[in-house]
Task: inverse folding
């Protein structure tokens, strides 16, 4: 079992920056890949970025060059640095962790970008 808690969301003006954090607890030593997903009102949840336990990253085309995903394995904390935010980045952002082929999710944190 893994528990994930996100923090760092909020309201920011377009062009601004936010950093999201995800803290994992429980069976953290067996966690594999982690990632950030987001869901805007009326839309399906979509991938934002993922990172493997070895540090390999993958980004959605819409955030490449603006967002940076990272993780601290010793503490099992994951970050999402978001720069040059746009109104279309407004969504609930969810932390994801994979353990033994099972996906765990956080409760989500709201990011609102005003234009």
Result:
């Amino acid at each position: 079992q893994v528990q994930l808690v996100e923090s760092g969301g909020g309201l920011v003006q377009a062009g601004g920056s936010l950093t999201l954090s995800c803290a994992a607890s429980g069976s953290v030593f067996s966690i594999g890949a982690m990632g950030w997903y987001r869901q805007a009102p009326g839309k399906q949840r979509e991938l934002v970025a993922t990172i493997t336990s070895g540090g390999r990253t993958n980004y959605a085309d819409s955030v490449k060059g603006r967002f940076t995903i990272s993780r601290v394995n010793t503490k099992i904390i994951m970050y999402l640095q978001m720069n040059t935010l746009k109104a279309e980045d407004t969504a609930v952002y969810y932390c994801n962790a994979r353990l033994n082929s099972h996906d765990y999710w956080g409760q989500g944190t709201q990011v609102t970008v005003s234009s």
